[in-house]
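Human:
Care to share another protein and its fold?

Assistant:
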Amino acid sequence: MATKIEKKITGFEVVKPEDNAESTGNVAHIAPLLERDDVLEGSTYKIKTPHSEHAMYITINDVVVNPGQPDEHRRPFEVFINSKNMEHFMWIVALTRVVSAIFRKGGDVTFLVEELKAVFDPRGGYYKKGGRYMPSIVAEIGEVIQQHLISIGMMEGQLNTAELEAKRREAREKLGEDAVARGNLCDKCGAMAVIRLDNCNTCLECGDSKCG
């Protein structure tokens, strides 16, 4: 904003931005980065794709926020991805650093799931064990993060329950092994996995079902 000076300048003073913010009362508070404890609890998930003979292992470690308090809860703090196949070493290192940095910033990190699961491999996706379709390795990493966030209560959704696995088996028995490949878009999770089963539109990815 420009200010018109109508009097003779007799002196001046340099005002720092933070000083000006304090004088106006408009102080922007930035949440501190989460601090790492000496020992963290976490979970390791295994990904096996037909694109590689070696499995990929994803470890997500959590930090406990407000321990011993009524609002005690766990948050993801860092992620590590390891595999014997280092063909994609550079992008794996880049992805782990970026995701870990976002975790440490705090706040809502659930957007990562949607962003990662929306990545499609131009060479084509693959079917996981059990007939579930994955559009890319990155999308499956996004699913792993989703499952972890659900397990620690940071995200709503369904884990890979026995009931959901039963629906997948029923779909393969009634519609064939490629049932998921012929699925439609799920309004809830965005996966192309909605099939017609027992007069219900059922998503074999998240379990969402609408009958009628």
Notes: The first strand starts at residue 41 and ends at 47. The longest helix spans residues 89-105. The helical segments are 17-24, 89-105, 111-117, 137-151, 162-175.
